[in-house]
Cobalt-precorrin-5B C(1)-methyltransferase (Chrysosporum bergii ANA360D), 371 residues
Amino acid sequence: MSRSGYTLPVFACAAAIAALHWLRHSQPIKSVSVNLISPAQIAEIPIEQVGGLSEGMALAITRSEPGDNLDLTRNTPIWVVVEWRRGDGESVVIQGGEGVGKQVNAGNQPAIYAYAHQLLQQNLKEMLADDEKITVKIILPEGRSLAVRTSNSAFGVVEGLSLLGTSGISQPLSTPDQLASFRRELQDKAGRFESLVFCIGENGLDLARQMGINPEQLVKTANWLGPLLVEADVLGVKEILLFGYHGKLIKLAGGIFHTHHHLADGRREILAAHCALAGLKSEDIEIVFHSPTAEAALKHLKFLDSTTGTDWVNQVYSAIAAAIDSRSQQYIHSHTARGTNTTVCGSILFDRDRQIIVKSKIGCVFKQKLC
């Protein structure tokens, strides 16, 4: 059985609690209790170091422990500086320091998302008197170097890591046990809903919630789309909306249903083929084919549309979305024992700016039902 750990926001919160404890008592602390909120449980997090920096300012350090998940942040240090603050405003002001990514599409705001804010605010406010205020600065000393090994830049986050996530528990997402965990979640939700939304990662889950989709109908799949589509059909789910970043979902249009890049890729081939079928000029097809990322290929199509008045993005991606829907149906059909499937699939693809590129015809209908 794989061992779960905790997400980065939990360690940042633990360090903040330890630093605030130092400001109160001028004493080191070896561990702190963090209310994870989601799930509703308490975690004991070890503190590596804590001490005062100056009058009214303290620093605490923890290290990330994601359990058996193959997470590149394992053992990375998380520093948090807490300082007493005067004046008006929130009792807890959260800032991103060195190594915390910046959201280029949100005015370079620190990439500290909703769950991290909720976790810090709730845990720290409980330690403050009504008239007390603090500033909390999160620093990830290795964040900038680790970020180049992630897909953060594809979602407009630069110069560091994101404090992203919807839960305090870091599941072993890169191990075989992941599929069993996701199947259990799917089984639970399939018993309550006829329509579900499959999201590969946290960006899809976060955007789907922002769009007003019921969180209880969201199912995280990571790269296990194929097996979970078949499972959904067996469980009697009527409708599946595939909602995700185009650089991942585009693989389904080529019949690739385990989307981890170590197993199979083909994004540029799939994009180039659909560009050719849509009638794009050969020199532009070549640019698409040799683009380093799916996002770069999309950018070229957008450039053509903006400079020539064409509609290549819509033409190409509408065809890709339709192919995703049909290939998903075919995949379910070929992998179910009874040979006929009842689950209908639709798709919505978004880009690095979290802007919707295209909704398939079926996906558009599903979205209207879900939102």
Remarks:
- The mean pLDDT is 90.
- The radius of gyration is 23 Å.
- Residues 274 and 319 are 7 Å apart (CA to CA).
- The longest helix spans residues 312-335.
